Amino acid sequence: MQRIALLCLVLVVAALVAPAAQADSFSAKVTPIPREMRTAMTGVSWHKGCPVGFGSLRLITSTYHLPAGGTATGQLIVHRDVAPAVKRILKRLWELDYPIAHMDPVDKYGGDDTASIEADNTSAFNCRTATGSSNWSNHAYGYAIDLNPIENPWIENGKVFHKASKPYIDRTQQKSPLEILPGDKVVKAFAAEGWGWGGAWSGGTLDTQHFSITGR
Q1: Cα separation of 105 and 31, whole Å?
Q2: Which of 164, 165, 163, 202 has the alpha carbon at shortest distance from 182?
Q3: Cβ(27)–Cβ(62) under 8 Å?
Q4: Domain coordinates of the chain in residue numbers?
Q5: What average pLDDT does the structure give for the chain?
């Protein structure tokens, strides 16, 4: 009896210290926004007067690679018209072993774009105006994705707005596997679906985290 009890104890301890199961293949599904998520989004990332309703949005639940190794499952909210393309892009990033720090709807951060960036969170839909403008952002339609925003910052006249992004002002060489550079595999993965990159803007402003169907 003591042997059986000892064996059970060993099995319990082994289960507790065993690493979490990792996804060994890509998985993604596209669904309408669930009712409970609509409720959570209302007054946060979505509100009355937004240019799209919940019926125009889709939830993508997808696996992705983590920077330190292993995998996780995250979510993006995008417009239904681009959901198939975004699913293909996520699959291509998976195939390229491109890591993503976090991937959660901005509602996790109270709809606060700054808080989402500080968490290095990859996100898409957020009903807000474009930076420095009174016009709706492509994010307000679900037509844009911000990818690993700490390593890929908004750069304005050589300056960034997040302390952790300072090492990434210089875009001439890659300092992190999360960093996106001109013409690299990430830019090509989005370009294959017709999406433009904010890191290719002309002038003194670059939005190196930003991909959208219009390029703006």
Answers
A1: 14
A2: 202
A3: yes
A4: 26-212
A5: 91
